């Protein structure tokens, strides 16, 4: 995953309220996202995930959506987005994210086998909340995948298994790749 490796190594790190933020094309939509990088990432997800068991890809807002759409396009697996907006459709479920924002699950039914796909995991709090909400509606979470796992934060994930394409340590002056899927 040459492009993914280079893109992480070249990604700027900015500080926001004492928190170091990786400004990577996949997780921020900037710097400019090279189509060849998305292709490489999609190929990585397809190669490392048991997609034959998946009925639906579920992507939480916001920055997992472009990756999830690209994976949906090449696999023909339908995609549903967990939104930060209430629609009031029949069966809509809601849950609170750790930051206090309410998210809404629509069109995931009991028994659906889902792949949860997001751009990045750090503490894991966001994904844990999504997975819990999906379990509450009776879906079976087959896999939870991200492109980037940040390994320098305290994880709150205990029994949730998240697969990643690249694991990074974010420093004040840049990101260090500590593990990457070999393809
Ligand atoms: O593992 P955690 O510590 O919970 O952090 C990971 C979350 O942070 C990012 O989202 P962000 O809140 O930046 O929102 P965005 O996707 O809308 O940019 C990312 O997309 C994950 O959802
Ligand atoms: N883009 C990002 N970089 C570093 N940590 C994050 N946590 C959530 N999003 C992040």
From TrEMBL:
Keywords: Glycosyltransferase, Purine salvage, Transferase. Gene3D superfamilies: 3.40.50.2020. InterPro entries: PRTase-like, PRTase_dom, Pur/Pyrimidine_PRTase. One of its GO terms (molecular function) is adenine phosphoribosyltransferase activity. Residues 38-152 form the Phosphoribosyltransferase domain. One of its GO terms (biological process) is purine ribonucleoside salvage. Its EC number is 2.4.2.7. It is an enzyme of class 2 (transferase). It holds the Pfam family Pribosyltran. SUPFAM superfamilies: PRTase-like. NCBIfam families: PRK02304.1-4 (NF002635). This is Adenine phosphoribosyltransferase. It comes from Halospeciosus flavus.
């Amino acid at each position: 995953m040459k492009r993914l490796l280079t893109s992480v190594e070249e990604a700027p790190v900015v500080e926001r309220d004492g928190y170091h933020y990786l400004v990577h094309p996949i997780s921020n939509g900037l710097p400019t996202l090279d189509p060849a990088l998305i292709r490489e990432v999609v190929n990585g997800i397809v190669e490392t995930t048991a997609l034959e068991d998946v009925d639906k890809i579920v992507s939480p807002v916001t920055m997992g959506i472009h990756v999830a759409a690209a994976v949906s396009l090449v696999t023909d697996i339908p995609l549903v987005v967990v939104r930060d907006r209430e629609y009031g459709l029949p069966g809509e479920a809601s849950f609170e994210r750790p930051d206090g924002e309410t998210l809404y699950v629509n069109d995931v039914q009991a028994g659906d086998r889902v792949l949860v796909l997001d751009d990045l995991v750090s503490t894991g709090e966001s994904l844990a909340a999504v997975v819990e909400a999906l379990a509450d509606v009776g879906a079976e979470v087959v896999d939870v995948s991200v492109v980037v796992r940040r390994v320098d934060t305290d994880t709150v994930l205990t029994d949730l298994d998240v697969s990643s394409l690249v694991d990074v340590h974010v420093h004040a002056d840049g990101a260090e790749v500590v593990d990457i899927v070999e393809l």
